[in-house]
Amino acid sequence: MTNLVAYFAALDELVRKTPLRIDRPTGSAHPRFPEVVYPVDHGYLEETAGRDREGVDVFRGSAEGTGIVGVALTADLTKRDVDVVVLLDCTDDEVDRIEHFLHERLRLNAAIVRRA
Fold this sequence. Notes:
GO biological process, one term: phosphate-containing compound metabolic process
Strand content: 25-35%
CATH superfamily: Inorganic pyrophosphatase
Order of helices and strands: HEEEEEHE
CATH class: Alpha Beta
Helix content: 25-40%
Strand order of the largest sheet: 1-2-3-5-4-6
Shape: globular
CATH architecture: Alpha-Beta Complex
GO cellular component, one term: cytoplasm
Number of helices: 2
InterPro entries: Pyrophosphatase_sf (IPR036649)
Organism: Rhodococcus spongiicola
Distance between the termini: 13 Å
GO molecular function, one term: inorganic diphosphate phosphatase activity
Structural class: alpha+beta
């Protein structure tokens, strides 16, 4: 098993065992930038810890049952931090919209790692 396959398998288990709380539904405004609107549901995995010591971030799309399709990697030079966001149940179009949202709307250095 390659490292990337093992990584996604671990994420699968984490998502399967952990409740997802959606705190920013599709169409809602970003809390710091009200002109920026979320293209898909955004939330976090309860009782987990991400970079901000809050739950692991998740973008959830409309393709229910698809599972984890990738992760978004971000580097914010202003805040001097990096983040990994799980892409769950997303269509290819939704992944493209998430990448645009992160890079163009939030001005983050962002890259998508798609699951093979």
